[in-house]
Design a protein that fits this description.
This protein is α+β, with helices and mostly antiparallel strands. 45% of the residues lie in helices and 12% in strands. Helix 9 crosses helix 13 and helix 10 packs antiparallel against helix 11. The chain is elongated, with a radius of gyration of 29 Å.
């Protein structure tokens, strides 16, 4: 495997060396998708390399036609490099001086032109990646709003962002990761807004990555940027909506795009960033605030409803007389704690089955599972009706959570609290809640407190978390990202 410590090979002025290098290192004759064409222009051999499928065939033919026409219109062979470069009427043509750079550009979808007698290659950016058209993400739908979303094409993703943010200070810095995959990674930020220390830190982290390839694209990159170990909570936010990414750029965040992934990585983020949804900002502020309150309530229910109900079920003396109806009327043949665990695992079975089941069949499968399995389980005494009720409520709360990663983490915490209550009763509940609070408070996302602005407490920022403040009154950027320009007005 090639490492960054190996000496880079300069482009030889003898074009035979170039052909031998491409044949040995890139597999010119073995790989069918590696295109090659040689022509003679002004008595000089010209070689052109490209990858079929990543470049437009009509563009390749156009370049060949232009080169052939040089023989009819020019005669100064000493200036052949300048002549060919002037005839390449494309938006981006640049020079590279090493074979490593030339090969990387060719395998990225660009065309490399080598001229006999010249120690450089001309790189023409005519890449045309296969992919789908922008469409609304399935997990971030809104009732009103834009219907476009990011795709697997990194060039298209940066263009969708630039369309919404026509700022001369917007920067799209392209980096490469992976000794073999050469994956394109784009760091996007607003130069006079984003924290320069954060940008520098991210660049250093990305440049230090030593791996043969990013097999899972953005998720693999996240694991290099943030060493999570046993932390189950998401430390970055993913979005497939250009409007959401643009909104975070204006706040001072940094966006990371990874080629072949339709998701953009937003850094740094807190717990409350994962609770936001674009729908809140597509409604009037009062309605947006109501939606936010309901979402907070659903997430709290997903986290604490099951262990709290189980505590009252096993310790009914804790309940006041007016709430004595809480708890199972018929405990069934299986302990309640075991019922909750089995039901939780059963819901995970259904979720995974729905993912791997074709869409026309998934609806029928859900109906069968909900009606037949649930009803029969109650009749045979495996589950009590109350367990089904509270398990369903908690599951709905998880589905209401905008961030899928956050909902999965909350589900793990819920199961842990249920086990603590089932084993130790009230002491287990109190110790479990305390350990959970201590755990989530100590989390840092790129040196950012995870529970900000709750801990450390910031009243002004907390108002923006609880209430959907109208945009005209949102004059300051969040202080937690340490923006260079804190004021949101020019």
């Amino acid at each position: 495997m090639q490492t960054g410590k190996e000496k880079k090979i300069s482009i030889s002025p003898h074009i035979e060396d170039t052909y031998a290098y491409m044949e040995k290192r890139v597999g010119l004759k073995e790989s069918y998708d590696l295109g090659y064409r040689e022509t003679v222009v002004l008595n000089r051999r010209i070689q052109m390399y490209y990858v079929n499928g990543l470049t437009d065939t009509s563009v390749v033919q156009e370049i060949l036609k232009v080169m052939v026409e040089v023989n009819d219109n020019e005669s100064e062979s000493d200036k052949i490099g300048e002549i060919i470069e002037n005839r390449l009427v494309h938006q981006q043509v640049e020079h590279v001086s090493t074979m490593d750079e030339a090969v990387d550009e060719v395998l990225s979808g660009l065309i490399a032109v080598f001229i006999d007698g010249k120690d450089y290659a001309q790189i023409i950016d005519v890449r045309n990646y296969p992919g789908r058209t922008p469409e609304e993400p399935d997990t971030e739908k809104v009732i009103r709003g834009s219907r476009d979303g990011y795709t697997e094409n990194i060039v298209e993703n940066t263009a969708l962002t630039r369309r919404r943010l026509r700022d001369e200070k917007l920067r799209n810095v392209m980096l490469k990761v992976g000794e073999r995959s050469k994956t394109d990674v784009c760091l996007t930020y607003i130069e006079d807004v984003a924290n320069p220390n954060l940008v520098k830190h991210l660049k250093n982290l990305i440049n230090k990555i030593e791996v043969d390839g990013l097999s899972m694209s953005d998720k693999s990159l996240e694991e290099f940027l943030l060493v999570k170990k046993w932390n189950i909570y998401p430390l970055v936010r993913y979005t497939e909506r250009p409007d959401v990414a643009t909104s975070h750029l204006l706040e001072g965040h940094v966006i990371i795009f990874v080629d072949t992934s339709p998701s953009a990585i937003i850094v740094p983020t807190t717990f409350f960033h994962h609770m936001q949804h674009a729908e809140e900002y597509r409604q009037v502020p009062a309605i947006g605030t109501c939606i936010r309150f309901i979402r907070f309530l659903a997430v709290l229910a997903a986290l604490f409803l099951l262990p709290t109900w189980l505590l009252f079920a096993v310790e009914p003396s804790l309940l006041p007389e007016k709430l004595s109806f809480i708890g199972p009327n018929d405990e069934g043949n299986v302990p309640i704690t075991v019922q909750i665990i089995i039901a939780t695992i059963g819901i995970e079975f259904l979720r995974m089955a729905a993912i791997h089941t074709p869409t026309p069949l998934s609806t029928a499968m859900g109906l069968i599972a909900a009606v037949l399995i649930g009803e029969i389980a109650i009749e045979v005494g495996l589950f009590s009706p109350e367990v089904i009720l509270y398990i369903s409520t908690a599951a709905i709360g998880n589905y209401v959570t905008p961030s899928y990663e956050l909902s999965v983490a909350n589900k793990v915490i819920t199961v842990s609290l249920v086990l603590a209550v089932g084993l130790f009763g009230l002491p287990g509940y109190m110790i479990g809640i305390t350990l959970y609070i201590l755990f989530i408070v100590q989390i840092r996302s790129l040196r950012t407190p995870y529970m900000w602005p709750l801990l450390p407490f910031n009243l002004k920022a907390m108002k923006h978390i609880i209430l959907r403040i109208p945009i005209p009154y949102t004059k300051h950027r969040p202080s937690i990202v340490h923006p260079r320009n804190n004021y949101r007005r020019p």
